[in-house]
């Protein structure tokens, strides 16, 4: 089990590094979008390459950061239902969810996106818009993103099973991600407001 936990930590570290680096592309996308809008309004001109770059940057952030989001326990779940269950059941739901839903989806996407990318790469597929960007680099992001997500799903399974067996502690226990942190902060502020309100 020790080498599996080591593998899980390595996957977490790689996906965290990639996610943090790619998250800066949100700022780049905003700057590209703003510059493109200003140039279009002021100079009455535009570029299909700059327009397409915006959705490529969005795709980079979305696909490359998905595995980091899963690792950080910030993925979407129904918190109201999830927090009502005992921890052991929640851990079991995570194992079943990753095994029966996330891993098969990632495998299907890997199998289907690889030929999708390779065909585009082989013909050096270009944009259908004049002056647009090549299409194959963007199509490669689907395969890369789901490869990272597949690896992270394996890491999450290893961690969840190790937690259920008492081998490691759950570093997300009681946090529930950003949503629960926001609820905790709201409760703290309400308590302060009640203490300071005039009687």
Percent of residues in helical segments?
A: over 70%
DSSP helical segment count: 7
Biggest beta-sheet profile: none
Structural class: mainly alpha
**Overall outline:** flat
Average pLDDT for all residues: 85
Report the end-to-end length measured between terminal Cα atoms.
59 Å
Q: What is the domain tally?
A: 1
Rounded to an integer, what's the Rg over CA atoms?
22 Å
Beta-strand residue fraction: under 5%
Question: Can you tell me the residue ranges where pLDDT is under 50 for at least 5 consecutive residues?
Answer: none
- Give the helices and strands as they follow along the chain: HHHHHHH
Number of strands: 0
Concise summary:
The protein is an all-alpha fold and 199 residues long.
How does this model look, in words?
There is one protein chain. By secondary structure, the chain is an all-alpha fold. The chain has seven helices and no strands. The model has no long low-confidence stretch (mean pLDDT 85).
């Amino acid at each position: 089990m020790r080498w599996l936990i080591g593998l899980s930590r390595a996957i977490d570290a790689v996906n965290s590094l990639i996610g943090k680096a790619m998250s800066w592309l949100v700022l780049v996308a905003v700057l590209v979008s703003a510059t493109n809008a200003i140039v279009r309004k002021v100079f009455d001109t535009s570029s299909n390459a700059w327009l397409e770059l915006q959705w490529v940057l969005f795709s980079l952030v979305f696909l490359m950061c998905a595995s980091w989001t899963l690792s950080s326990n910030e993925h979407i779940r129904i918190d109201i239902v999830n927090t009502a269950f005992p921890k052991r059941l929640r851990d079991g739901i995570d194992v079943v969810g990753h095994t029966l839903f996330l891993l098969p989806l990632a495998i299907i996407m890997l199998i289907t996106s690889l030929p999708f990318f390779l065909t585009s790469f082989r013909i050096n597929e270009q944009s259908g818009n004049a002056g647009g960007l090549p299409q194959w680099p963007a199509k490669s992001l689907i395969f890369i993103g789901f490869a990272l997500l597949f690896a992270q799903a394996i890491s999450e399974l290893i961690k969840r099973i190790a937690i259920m067996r008492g081998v490691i502690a759950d570093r997300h226990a009681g946090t529930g991600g950003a949503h629960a942190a926001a609820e905790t902060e709201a409760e703290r502020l309400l308590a302060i407001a009640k203490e300071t309100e005039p009687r």
